[in-house]
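Backbone-to-sequence.
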């Protein structure tokens, strides 16, 4: 084994990658980058029945989006390939033959029916579940009789019946399992495909993996893997099992918590920077305070010592907040570029396409402090694009204003504004402030009907800037519509 760090992310293309999966990828990637090691992607596609067609593309797409580049694996290749387990069947077969011939594995001819009955029996007698080792000691004759019947066997590992298997988990410390709690697990299925256990051990060995960082759910597989390493006389890698991720209700993270496919977050307008920052803190921390960390800071500081043993809590609110922070760190140009496709796809159909980038460029400064996701740009700024605004006439009336006084104020504003030669921030402010005084209103009493008239909402970006962007003609038109609404009320 070389001294360098070689870690792998080994997804099965059986579904879209969710936050839990990708957190594993991220921790491996951070660990590799911190140690100047290699980050390897290996596709564990040996469960033919559970394969999901575009899952692989979604996984790679998710990694690319987050900037988790891999040094070896699909598309980039590498000298330890192939990186798809389905293309390594011969290696597994050879290993299994070796295990059988040295007496560490055996052929099992039990039918699914027999296994089902065995299990039912175990359940009935409240016995521990697991294979009863029926075929472990078949005689040569019994074996060839089965072969003659044409039964295709599976190959099982001959797990030691006594003793213990332990290891030093880099996160949890010493972990020990009694061998008699492990059954004779399957290595090779009857379709010739390896099980996860076999393929994982063979590949981690052949790919010279130094550290296995994986989710806690795999902890109980590790003693099986270690027994295999022993039987094969391979030096095992070091293991580190990452803490579970729970929702704020402390239930295991599921779709219900909004944790579906990682690419859905992209669709909702989350930035890769904040996703990376957020996921890094799902089980790791720099200290007890720091929340916002750049990619480079994460790489510089990542260590397994600071990965917690207790479950991490997935707090969507925090992600939402972090995304707002990342979003505000973008330059005007970057934010503009990222917002454009969201406006194109999210604005109501009646808005004419293509959306003018130049126009959006004037809107961005007005909304950047107010949105937390890119998709919110469309909901927050739609009034800049719509021809007709929908709002209730009563929302036009400010504090202590009646329909009558509001109408009067709007009419006066309309007259003043129509006389303005230059429709800029300062002239608007000057004109409208002195108008409020003239009318004996406080500023809010005049500005709030104007805000609703021009934007259709009570909470909107700063009024004068907004009116400037909308332009004189559109503002006057909208004030007119508002007066009509009030009149009809
Ligand atoms: N294929 C397994 C998974 O989908 C990999 C587990 C491991 O990292 O060993 O998570």
């Amino acid at each position: 084994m070389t001294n360098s760090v070689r870690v792998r992310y080994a997804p099965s293309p059986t579904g879209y990658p969710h936050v839990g999966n990708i957190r594993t990828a991220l921790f491996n990637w951070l660990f590799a980058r911190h140690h100047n090691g290699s980050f390897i992607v290996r596709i564990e596609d040996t469960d033919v029945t559970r394969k999901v067609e575009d899952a692989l593309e979604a996984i790679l797409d998710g990694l690319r989006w987050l900037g988790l580049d891999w040094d070896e694996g699909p598309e980039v290749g590498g000298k330890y390939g192939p990186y798809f387990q389905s293309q390594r069947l011969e290696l597994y077969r050879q290993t299994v033959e070796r295990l059988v011939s040295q007496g560490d594995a055996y052929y099992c001819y039990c039918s699914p029916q027999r296994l089902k009955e065995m299990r039912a029996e175990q359940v009935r007698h409240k016995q521990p579940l697991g294979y009863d080792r029926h075929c472990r000691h078949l005689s040569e004759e019994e074996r060839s009789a089965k072969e003659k019947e044409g039964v295709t066997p599976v190959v099982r590992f001959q797990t030691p019946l006594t003793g213990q298997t332990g290891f030093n988990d880099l996160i949890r410390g010493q972990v020990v399992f009694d061998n008699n709690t492990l059954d004779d697990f399957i290595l090779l299925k009857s379709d010739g495909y390896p099980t996860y256990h076999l393929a994982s051990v063979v590949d981690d060995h052949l790919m010279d993996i130094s550290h296995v960082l994986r989710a806690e759910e795999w902890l109980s597989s590790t003693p099986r893997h270690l027994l295999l390493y022993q039987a094969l006389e391979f030096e095992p890698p070091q293991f580190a099992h990452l803490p579970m991720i729970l929702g704020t209700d402390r239930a295991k993270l599921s779709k219900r918590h909004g944790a579906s496919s990682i690419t859905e977050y992209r669709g909702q307008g989350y930035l890769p920077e904040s996703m990376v920052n957020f996921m890094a803190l799902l089980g790791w921390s720099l200290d007890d305070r720091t929340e916002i960390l750049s990619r480079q800071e994460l790489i510089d500081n990542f260590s397994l010592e600071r990965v917690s043993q207790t479950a991490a809590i997935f707090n969507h609110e925090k992600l939402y907040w972090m995304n707002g922070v990342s979003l505000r760190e973008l330059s005007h140009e970057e934010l503009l570029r990222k917002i454009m496709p969201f406006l194109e796809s999210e604005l109501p159909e009646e808005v004419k396409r293509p959306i003018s980038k130049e126009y959006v460029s004037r809107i961005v400064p007005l909304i950047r402090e107010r949105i937390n996701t890119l998709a919110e740009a469309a909901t927050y700024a739609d009034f800049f694009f719509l021809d007709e605004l929908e709002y209730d006439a009563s929302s036009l009336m400010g504090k202590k204003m009646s329909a009558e006084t509001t109408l009067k104020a709007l009419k006066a504003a309309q007259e003043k504004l129509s006389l303005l030669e230059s429709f800029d921030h300062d002239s608007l402010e000057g004109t409208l402030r002195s108008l409020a005084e003239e009318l004996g209103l406080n500023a809010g009493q005049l500005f709030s009907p104007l805000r609703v008239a021009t934007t259709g909402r009570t909470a909107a970006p700063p009024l004068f800037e907004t009116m400037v962007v909308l332009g004189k003609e559109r503002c006057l038109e909208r004030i007119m519509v508002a007066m009509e609404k009030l009149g009809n009320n």
